[in-house]
Amino acid sequence: MNISILRRGIAWTLLVLFFLVLSACVTSPPITVTPALEKGPAVILLSGLGGDSGYQSFADAVGKLGYVAFLADINNFIYTKADAGKNLQKLMEAVQQDSRVIPGKVAIIGFSLGGRIALVYGTSHTEKVSAVIAFYPAIIGLENMPQKATRVAVPTLILAGEKDRFFNCCRIKSIREFEVAARKASVPVTLVSYPGAAHGFNLQTYPTQYRAADAEDAWERAKSFLLKHHPLP
Can you give the CATH number for the domain in which 39 is found? Predict the structure, then answer.
């Protein structure tokens, strides 16, 4: 067996086990939604493994643009393939029924594991989703990656660090494989990578990884992408 494939499989197995242990400790409801602002189009933000607190400032920034930002702690999702998709569906339905939300499609922004769920389960919902943005998505070990990439049906932006080594979950190689498969199928996926950036490079809550210039560039790209594909009234 190829050693690199074996190592990747072991790393992914350990990461999944870690997720399962964490999820077993969660006592709150399966989906927690935290609105950040008032009336406007909805944007759902799916946190990474560290929980929603590390992403609140990003949600606030999205809210200040004029969107209603809903921040969901990914640890409150159940880590099976079926349940992750179902929970995202429930989350979208809850958001669309919120009185602060202007009726219509939602945009989804995911980070790390949240980025994986956004890419796998959010990008094909053309009837409910206008756009997806995935920061350093955890797609290592994603089954049938080329096939899943070709299912992307909404404008999708991926922002990733080329030095990301976090649990080997979000390496640029796997993300490029996804982007190449999408490009070959002529589906709407754009990848922007940052040569010196690691995991969480755009979050000040992770000071050892934070890179101000890359973070600012990624925010400007994400903001422009949102305004273009999920316009404000």
Answer: 3.40.50.1820
